[in-house]
């Protein structure tokens, strides 16, 4: 079942984290934050919505980093139920796809809960002051990739944030698989 998160809660603060990356290092938000803004993406390996846009995520992240936007991807899924989303598989995906950004594992799911992440993919675009300015979709893609010439909504929004500190007021929510929350023990 597809899930859509709520639309942007403008100016909501970002949430600090300290998470292990596929590179074996601990990454903090302050290390990742860009001089002109920061994009925090909740993704995972197995979700067809993420898989359909992975090439576009990698492309847009690389271009955003070139204009001063810090980029990070976080997977928070329960790996007991979804082992393909575990750290070793994440490492292989990041290497195979040529990630230019850290791919972090949120083992406790505390970071995903702090952000209010609901689905994969779920994009949170912040300005240089750490204020939320975008919580929309990458483009018109769904479980399958949209047209090659689809409007690059996430990229355009983050570029606007880098230039003005403000995100677009009209945003279309992302859609994807629900975060796979751990069951209470």
TrEMBL record:
Q: Which positions fall inside the Thioredoxin domain? A: 8-159
What Pfam families does its record include?
A: AhpC-TSA
Q: Which InterPro entries has this protein been placed in?
A: AhpC/TSA (IPR000866), PRX-like1 (IPR047262), Thioredoxin-like_sf (IPR036249), Thioredoxin_domain (IPR013766)
> Single GO molecular-function term?
antioxidant activity
Q: Could you list the residue ranges forming a coiled coil in this record?
A: none
Superkingdom of origin:
Bacteria
| PANTHER family on file | OS07G0260300 PROTEIN, THIOREDOXIN-DEPENDENT PEROXIREDOXIN
Q: What is this protein called?
A: Peroxiredoxin
| Species in which this protein is naturally found | Paracoccus alcaliphilus
